[in-house]
Amino acid sequence: MSKQLQPLSVAAPAFFGLNTQDSPVGLSANFAKTADNCVIDKQGRIAARQGHTQVSTSTGSLGSNPIEAIHEHVAYDGTKTVYSAGNNLLYTGTTTLATLGFPDPYQTVTANNWKIVSFNNSVYFFQRGYTPLKQTNGTGALAKLAHGGTGAPQTNEVLTAFGRLWTADNTTDKYTVHFSSLLVDDFHPSGTNNAGTLDLTKVWASDEIVALAEFNGSLVIFGKRQTVLYKGADSIDTIALVDIINVGCIARDSVQETAGDLIFLSDQGVMSLGRLIQEKSQPLRDISKNVRSDLMGDVPSDTAGVKSVYSPENAFYLLSLPAVNKVYVFDLRGALEDGAFRATKWTAIALTAFERLSDGTLYMGKDTLGIVQYGGFQDAGNTYRMNYFSNEQDFGSPANEKFLKKMRITVIGGALSTAVLKWGYDYEESYAQETFTFGSSTIAQFGIAEYNTTAEYSAGITINRPSVNASGSGTTLSFGVETIINNSNFSIQKIDILALIGRLL
Q1: Is residue 473 within 8 Å of residue 502, measured between CB atoms?
Q2: What is the reported pLDDT for 487?
Q3: What is the DSSP string of 38-63?
Q4: Bridge partners, residue 13, by sequence
């Protein structure tokens, strides 16, 4: 068979996100083998994640410790206050972290896994083994949660829903849900429609409560191995068990309500509860199935540090595993045909807390910086590396040798940055590479402006199309791009490949 020059184009590479679960043989070019420090942008392109800017310029007694919990309280009068926890202390403020004093007397605090919630204009702090704390009307000193009867439950989980506080996960009691009186933070069971408990030993034989949530009018109780749903939770007279699902949650802070869904980390991957209400035959969906083995291999045995957030502005669910300095990112704009969500990964970054503020701003806890804000394209003034790599591609002719001649990449953004284009053949971990520098403001090829950008793209958007001469041959080809992100967006629109298609092998 005679050789013929053939263009091989990959539009929107990695549009389907990462797939490290399936065999790379025959995988679409729309899947990626590597997508580090990437997101899928709203145009469906593989793109650099945004960075973060430091919010807490004065971290006070935080020292070198990270923030491990963040909560925004919006008072009835519209006043907004940010609370956080770290270094065994509680704080208010953003630019300056001001220490909230514990009441005297109080236990010596040696943990930071506080769950902070707002209820009836006040702020509540719960953590297993510690007396719950309250700041009345979001002002003044912290006080122990006081109410009639026995002491307040020293639980690790708290939910505000159906006009009540719901708590669970005591040190010695992993199977009882406590709920307060209606619109009152009193847990003493007395009077009509008052406080009480749910005993989960009557529902499951052997499990323990991990997390609580409200979803589609149901109270959701997550055990490690099972999930229980109650209807009618707005009244103790009508609350009733309606379903038990044989999949549970292994990390309290992985639970996030999204637009029409409830997402959580199980021992089988990141699950979606959304189908339960609509489709009983298929109640759960593994949205992480394309990265499941990698993800579960990174999940630590102690999941107390696992954090998550849902950002509708960015259309993603972030699952942070600070113990291994990784964040798994799931794009929620739509599921793939197999039910998975498009996934990417952030590497070399430990995010220890999240809070989406009422105005859409995304706050995060980051090592010694206190509170940081997601945005921009630097990490607190520093650069970071984006890395994309394709799976092996045969371009529809698996038996033919491909002799690579030229590669061209179309990039949106990347002004004045340097990138490395790599390629290799036949599953070998040996790659050729070429380095190039992008222009500043126009479409450029070999640094020469070639096209007018105003017709298709808005003003201020940089478009670059550098080409490199390539060499080598093989029946399959993999390729990728590494670049340092330094104050400029970087998204890959298209990769064009010019090759000679050789003889049949």
Answers
A1: yes
A2: 92
A3: EEE-TTS-EEEPP-EEE--SB-GGGT
A4: none
Alpha carbon 477 to its chain's center: 31
Handedness of CA 179, 183, 189, 194 (dihedral sign): negative
Euclidean distance between CA atoms 385 and 382, whole angstroms:
10
Give the single-character DSSP code of 484.
E
| Mean pLDDT, the chain cut into blocks of 10 residues (505 residues total) | 68 91 85 96 94 95 96 97 98 96 96 97 97 94 81 92 96 94 87 84 93 96 96 90 94 95 96 67 80 97 97 97 98 91 97 98 95 97 95 85 90 87 89 84 39 39 84 91 94 90 65
Whole-angstrom distance, CA of residue 185 vs CA of residue 355: 24
The full 3-state SS of 232-265, as one line of letters, equals CCCCCCCCEEEEEECCCCCCHHHCEEECCEEEEE
Hey, what amino acid is at 277? I
Measuring CA to CA, which residue among 54, 56, 55, 35 is closest to residue 46?
A: 35
Is the pTM above the cut of 0.70? yes
Structural domains for the chain? 4-50+386-504 (2.60.120)
Q: What is the pLDDT at residue 188?
A: 83
Residue 28: CB atoms within 10 A of its CB come to 12
Alpha carbons 303 and 175: distance in angstroms, whole number: 19
The arrangement of strands across the sheet holding 196-199 comes to: 157-161, 164-168, 176-179, 196-199
Distance, CA of 357 to CA of 369 (rounded, Å): 19
Show the tokens assigned to 62.
Answer: 């935080």
Residue 455's pLDDT is what?
33
Taking alpha carbons only, the member of 348, 207, 315, 331 closest to residue 266 is 207
Contact criterion met (CB below 8 Å) for 357 and 363: yes
Amino acid at 26: G
The pLDDT of residue 51: 98
> How far is it, in rounded angstroms, from Cα 201 to Cα 197?
12
Q: What is the 3-state secondary structure (H, E, C) of 96-158?
A: ECEEECCCCCCCCCCCCCCEEEEECCEEEEECCCCCCEEEHHHCCCCEECCCCCCCCCCCCEE
DSSP 395: T
Nearest 5°: CA angle at 452, between 450 and 454?
155
Beta carbons within 8 Å of 281's beta carbon, 6+ residues apart: none
Quote the Cα angle for 21-24-28, to 5°.
Answer: 100
Nearest to 373 by CA among 386, 357, 396, 388: 357
Residue 498: name the closest of 468, 463, 475 by CA: 468
CA atoms within 13 A on the CB side of 139: 5
